[in-house]
Amino acid sequence: MNAPAFNENLHLLNGNHAVAWGVRLAKPDVAPLYPITPQTPILEKLIDFQSKNEFDAELLTPESEHSAMAAAIAASATGARVFTATSSQGLLLMHELLHYASGARTPMVLFNVNRTPGAPWGFWPDQIDSLSQRDTGWIQFYSENPQESLDTVIQAFRISEAANLPVMINHDAFYVSHSIEPVNLPSAEVVDGFLPRIPREFQLGDDSGRSLGAPLDQAGWNLTRQDMDVAMQGVERLTAAAGGDWAKLTGRPAAPLELYRCEDAEVVFVTMGSMCGNAREAVDRLRENGIAAGLLKVRLFRPLPAEALREALAGVPCAIVLDRNYSPGTGGVLHQELKAVLFGIETPPRLHGMLAGVGGVNVPVETIEKLAAEYRNAAPSAQPIWVE
């Protein structure tokens, strides 16, 4: 038997190192970062690149995540390409300035490693740290695996700089951040061609005659949000265009939503992040056993691609939402968002909200299969369902 051809671009990388490679290839000018488990390997790898003269950004390590975001905003406002990263409590410490970054229309890419916030203290994968920031005006992506994390970093710079809005990318702690998988590294030439520098619509400078964050009256503040709304409405198109161009260069498509075996599905799982892998395998097993299952993977969460979601789920008899998060008093965040999106459509699915994997609890393929068997013909429950 012949040995497989050697691929010099294929490397074994964990998810965080894949992110660092994406950042290196995107060539930011400034990178303010503060270490926090389980994000720290991103910072460590970037420091390693810089020590070898392979990463030319101004790498800052300020005294807190709040200061890191303040530095990121200031750098972006002067026209710099900016990257930062954090996790859990660090993201929560940035919260005040997340509003400032989007309101000031400062493009940048923040990579958040989804982790449980305290209390109690934990380091496990849970998406509530980023989902609790969903109203700050940031674009949000959720990544399934190391390859997608690398690809999304590169695409996110293009989307952010075109929309003049900051982008937050998220992947699950440990399931992705520390799991090692084969990752195909694009060449620097490919990334340079895909990610050109473009003039900034909003930029401070010695002769710009502009200030940042000056007080406004009520009507003026209102107009800033109307402008942000217009920019947000273009993000889904920008995401599709960036993903399409990336697919032409690499063979790896990256759409706002991914549909897997949904054409004739009687039950569709809807989820985000690393759980998509187990859900995809469960779909294949269910198909082998005569149950027409499918997967709807939500990659772009903010802005939520509402019309595409309605189109994907129209006519589907049953949809089961797998949420690795819990919003007290309401249940799973994605489930609540889908209920709002699907309200009033002619043929909505029976929608079931499953609190699956909250706090990092593993959700095996077999459990997902059982959910399909138990709920595909059941009436929706008024309360969220905890998956053991």
Overview of the molecule:
The chain has 388 residues and is an alpha/beta fold. The chain has two domains: 10-247, 3-Layer(aba) Sandwich (Rossmann fold); 257-386, Rossmann fold, CATH 3.40.50.920. It contains 14 helices and 15 strands. Helix 1 packs parallel to helix 7, helix 3 runs parallel beside helix 5 and helix 7 (146-163) crosses helix 10. It is globular, with a radius of gyration of 21 Å. The N and C termini lie far apart (45 Å). The relative contact order is 0.11. The mean pLDDT is 95.
Which SSEs are present, and which pair or pack?
Elements (H helix, E strand, L loop, with lengths): L9 E5 H12 L3 E3 L7 H12 L6 E3 L4 H13 L5 E4 L2 H5 L1 H9 L5 E6 L13 H4 L7 E4 L3 H18 L3 E6 L7 E5 L3 H7 L23 H16 L1 H16 L6 E4 L6 E5 L3 H14 L4 E6 L1 E3 L3 H8 L4 E6 L9 H10 L7 E6 L9 H11 L9 E2 L2
Parallel strand pairs: 2-3, 4-5, 5-7, 6-7, 10-11, 10-13, 13-14, 14-15
Antiparallel strand pairs: 1-8, 6-12, 9-11
The low-pLDDT segments are none
Helix proportion range: 25-40%
The CATH architecture name of the largest domain reads 3-Layer(aba) Sandwich
| Helix-and-strand structural type | alpha/beta
Number of discrete helical segments: 14
Shape: globular
CATH class of the largest domain: Alpha Beta
Outline the biggest β-sheet: 6 strands, mixed
- N- and C-termini, Cα separation: 45 Å
Order of helices and strands: EHEHEHEHHEHEHEEHHHEEHEEHEHEHE
What's the total count of β strands? 15
- How large is the share of residues in beta strands? 15-25%
Main β-sheet, spatial strand arrangement = 9-11-10-13-14-15
